[in-house]
Recover the amino acids of this structure.
């Protein structure tokens, strides 16, 4: 909600306010989705109780109601008043409520309530990260031929500090940077492909109606093709043709 992933804030908060008093399939669907959300909050609260992080006497449905109400209130305040402090206030209120429900300081949590110890296989983690990095490098290499020479695409990925055996954190940082670079280049290539397709359609329009596209010019570079060929709407016989409305498309024969 804070980053406005959806215009208008939380979609379901807005839909709930709009449809809560209007019986029908839409209201039922919104109510069912919000019910699943409240159940997910209750399940998280119960997990915290099982882990000894929340008092066992906490009523999960009551705390879920309070957390949901604070979140909805922050969304309302931000959307209506553009109150940039709304989410910080909600976080503070939720944190204070949860801390107040934590087991008493110094109280020993029964062993059965403690989460089991997690054994981390660093070797397996490193192998998995290297496999992910290798796949991203292959994806990056596969996209390279799709870009024409001279296109300003940044293919570089920063080195993680010179030749050495990379720790898990370094491998994660390298993977994340590669993933970001791959996504950035993929988006850039997609945008250029769409622009080039628009230019191809423009050529068709230009050829079909030269007079409707006076003096317009489209080159091979505009459609992502090599060479110096271009299509240029020009009048026949110079000034006379321009006065008489005699327009044509001149197609160059290529580079001189």
């Amino acid at each position: 909600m804070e980053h406005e992933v959806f215009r208008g804030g939380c979609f379901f908060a807005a839909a709930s306010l709009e449809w809560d008093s209007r019986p029908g399939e839409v209201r039922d669907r919104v109510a069912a989705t919000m019910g699943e959300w409240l159940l997910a909050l209750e399940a998280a609260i119960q997990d915290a109780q099982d882990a000894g992080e929340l008092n066992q006497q906490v009523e999960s449905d009551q705390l879920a109601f309070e957390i949901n109400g604070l979140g909805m209130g922050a969304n309302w305040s931000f959307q209506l008043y553009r109150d940039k402090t709304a989410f910080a206030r909600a976080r503070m209120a939720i944190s204070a409520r949860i801390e107040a429900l934590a087991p008493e300081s110094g109280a020993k949590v029964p062993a059965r309530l403690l989460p089991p110890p997690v054994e981390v296989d660093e070797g397996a983690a490193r192998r998995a990260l290297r496999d992910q990095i290798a796949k991203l490098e292959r994806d990056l290499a596969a996209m390279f031929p799709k870009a024409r020479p001279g296109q300003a695409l940044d293919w570089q990925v920063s080195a993680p500090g010179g030749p050495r055996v990379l720790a898990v954190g370094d491998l994660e940082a390298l993977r994340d940077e590669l993933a970001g670079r791959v996504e950035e280049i993929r988006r850039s290539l997609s945008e250029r492909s769409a622009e080039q397709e628009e230019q191809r359609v423009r050529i068709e329009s230009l050829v079909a109606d030269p007079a409707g596209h006076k003096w317009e010019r489209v080159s091979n570079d505009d459609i992502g093709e090599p060479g110096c060929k271009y299509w240029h709407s020009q009048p026949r016989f110079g000034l006379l043709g321009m006065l008489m409305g005699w327009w044509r498309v001149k197609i160059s024969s290529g580079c001189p």
The chain has a mean pLDDT of 81.
